């Protein structure tokens, strides 16, 4: 076992443990903090996969914006953040069963893939993935339309969120 | 010996299953939203892992992951606005007490 594999196992185990705490912790504020830990672990895995830009975006958008927004929403709906009362609905055993079966099915299907044990190809040094990504997002041959649609979607979500949460008097 | 792609895929599958369990079992609507974030992250890990381990020079995996980020941000903004609005009107965001459309 090499150092890289050991590091991967440690990070993956930590991330999955934090994710388990997100779905089982009674106190929602604690769940949000564990969510931040999980997102940070995923950001580290992005860096492992030579996608440093996505790792930074993960920290800025997910941890900096989404997780903080979650904490704000939890604090605005104070009454449910208490530590009493059930955290699961009455179907949680079924949910556990379904998710375990789902995991087993995915693992089985993945093991049938021919390149399941594939290893990393070497990234050639003359290709810069960040530059490539930037060009791909704004060139008309690739993802320009999706990029513009994403900006329209964000604007619509922004206005929609303001109007929905507006306090009627 | 490097990390094979199977480790990333199994990790993403486990993360997705944890998120699925959270979505199906949690009572609080904000906790359900957090579980959805876990599932979206698992999908992103898969996209980036397949990009890194494929021999083509296409950047599609990362471009799709960026789109998933944008959609996730929009989804959380609207979702939390709806929950705050529901909380203001009904005084609860427990998922099984929001049953206006049930009969």
List keywords for this structure.
heterodimer; A: 169 residues; mainly alpha; Four Helix Bundle (Hemerythrin (Met), subunit A); 6 helices; globular; B: 103 residues; Helix Hairpins
Please tell me about this protein's structure.
The complex is a heterodimer of chains A (169) and B (103). Chain A has helices spanning 3-24, 28-48, 52-76, 92-111, 129-138, 144-165. With 169 residues, chain A is mainly α. Chain A has 2 domains: 1-83, Four Helix Bundle (Hemerythrin (Met), subunit A), CATH 1.20.120; 127-169. In chain A, α1 (3-24) runs antiparallel to α2 (28-48) and α2 packs antiparallel against α3 (52-76). Chain A starts with a helix and ends with a helix. Chain B is mainly alpha-helical. Chain B has a single domain, classed as Helix Hairpins (Orthogonal Bundle). In chain B, α2 (29-53) runs antiparallel to α3 (60-90). The longest helix of chain B is centred in the last third of the chain and has 31 residues, at 60-90. The relative contact order of chain B is 0.13. The model of chain B has no long low-confidence stretch (mean pLDDT 88). Chains A and B meet through α1, α2, α3, α4 and α5 of A and α1, α2 and α3 of B.
Seen as an oligomer or otherwise, the chain set is heterodimer
Q: Quote the average pLDDT of chain B.
A: 88
Level-2 CATH architecture of chain B: Orthogonal Bundle
* Residues in helix, % of chain B: over 70%
Report the helical percentage of chain A. over 70%
The portion of residues forming beta strands of chain B comes to: under 5%
Structural class of chain B: mainly alpha
Uncertain stretches of chain B = none
User: Radius of gyration of chain A, Cα only, in angstroms?
Assistant: 21 Å
- Mind telling me the C-alpha Rg of chain B? 17 Å
Structural class of chain A: mainly alpha
N→C terminal distance of chain A: 64 Å
Q: Look at the structure and name the CATH superfamily of the largest domain in chain A.
A: NADH-ubiquinone/plastoquinone oxidoreductase chain 6, subunit NuoJ
State the name of the first-level CATH class of chain B.
Mainly Alpha
Determine the most extensive contact between two protein chains: A-B, 90 and 75 residues
Determine the number of helices of chain B (DSSP H or I, runs of at least 4 residues). Answer: 3
């Amino acid at each position: 076992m090499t150092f890289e594999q050991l590091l991967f196992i440690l990070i993956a185990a930590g991330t999955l443990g934090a994710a388990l705490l997100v779905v089982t912790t009674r106190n929602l504020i604690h769940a949000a903090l564990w969510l931040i830990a999980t997102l940070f672990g995923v950001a580290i895995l992005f860096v492992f996969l030579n996608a440093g830009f996505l790792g930074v975006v993960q920290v800025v958008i997910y941890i900096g914006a989404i997780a903080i927004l979650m904490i704000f929403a939890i604090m605005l709906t104070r009454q449910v953040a208490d530590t009493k009362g059930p955290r699961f609905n009455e179907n949680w055993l079924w949910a556990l069963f379904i998710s375990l079966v789902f995991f087993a099915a995915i693992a089985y299907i993945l093991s049938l893939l021919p390149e399941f044990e594939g290893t990393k190809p070497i990234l050639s040094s003359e290709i810069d993935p960040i530059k490539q990504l930037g060009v791909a997002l704004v060139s008309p041959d690739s993802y320009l339309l999706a990029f513009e649609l994403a900006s329209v979607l964000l604007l619509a979500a922004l206005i929609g969120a303001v109007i929905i949460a507006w306090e009627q008097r | 010996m490097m990390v094979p792609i199977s480790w990333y895929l199994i990790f993403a599958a486990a993360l997705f299953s944890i998120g699925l369990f959270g979505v199906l079992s949690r009572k609080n609507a904000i906790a359900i939203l957090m579980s959805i974030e876990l599932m979206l992250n698992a999908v992103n890990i898969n996209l980036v892992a397949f990009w890194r381990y494929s021999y083509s020079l296409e950047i599609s995996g990362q471009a799709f992951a960026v789109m998933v980020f944008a959609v996730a941000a929009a989804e959380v903004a609207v979702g939390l606005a709806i929950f705050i609005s529901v909380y203001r009107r009904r005084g609860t965001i427990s998922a099984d007490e929001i049953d206006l459309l049930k009969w």
